[in-house]
What does this fold into?
Amino acid sequence: MRAIVYDRYGPPEVLHLEEVDRPVPADDEVLVKVRATTVNRTDTGLRNAELFISRFVTGLRRPKNRILGMEMAGEVAAVGKAVTEFKVGDAVFGGKGAGAWAEFVAIWESGPLAPKPAAMSFDEAAAVFDGVSLALPCLEGAGPVDGRRVLVYGSSGSVGTAGVQLAKHFGAHVTAVCSTRNVELARSMGADEVIDYTNEDFTKNGQRYDVIFDAVGKHSFRRCRRSLNPGGTFVDTDLGFMFQMPLLMLATRWIGSRKVKMGIARYARKDLLFLKELIEAGEFRAVIDRSYPLEDVMEAARYVETGKKVGNVVLTVDKGST
Ligand SMILES: NC(=O)c1ccc[n+]([C@@H]2O[C@H](COP(=O)([O-])OP(=O)(O)OC[C@H]3O[C@@H](n4cnc5c(N)ncnc54)[C@H](OP(=O)(O)O)[C@@H]3O)[C@@H](O)[C@H]2O)c1
It folds into this structure.
């Protein structure tokens, strides 16, 4: 099968198309023919080993797992003999956090795999899980947000667009912060208020929030703590310079009433099923910036690394019919 592989850490140029063996599903696995996948910040971070410590998981000298691709949507091509929930031909979505930049991927039946929402195309269904996999643990870390004032900083990224939609679903009053070009998008996702950070600094407008969710890792607790209500929480997606965030998390457990939390991405089946319900109820939609064919992965990765993508970048593996 065709797959995008990498054999060393580095820039987008380390990625190349190769013919590799098609995975053979184990008894409890489902083999999915991938129709679409995405290039996201986790893929690019793992590829260039942005955080050296990630190598303790992905391989010290070179990547142990040659195929990236966190999330996907496709059709079941084969099932292991113990599989009962899926059958050949079913349209599915999900992902196991690796292996989706290929024509086929094998996923445990009990892993993050679910029937594709019928009204979504394969491209759309491939581009919803990764943002949620981080935004959901981040919002959960802040405690129940029903009726509370939540500010999502960086509301136009993959995590930010998921954060706004999830916080609205959970009943929060949501303020989205983004640049001018993304104001309409934030409104269309249901944000109650939108602040254009090129015109207004939310830390200086006199407003206070119960939760400030930095969905793009560009703000800081120090700069926005006065915009938090007493008892409020600042949640970040990034470890920060010199692991600042885990240290602040520890410190604010004991000092002061305002807390710092960090979200760790979670690829869990229960979250995928919850997301499917939201999509089917019309409360969550995919935000796609650009789509590239699989073989143009290098170009897609370069674009993701500009830090300018709006929502998600899709790799179409097999166009087929929707
Ligand atoms: N902890 C984990 O496991 C994990 C996993 C994946 C990702 N992450 C982190 O999660 C964060 C978000 O990822 P993502 O994929 O959602 O990001 P992204 O899609 O790359 O975010 C890009 C968006 O952010 C906006 N943006 C850029 N600079 C901004 C700023 N200073 N203020 C506000 N908005 C800004 C950009 O639009 P404008 O430039 O027009 O504003 C663009 O729309 C990243 O920090 C990433 O490292 C963490």
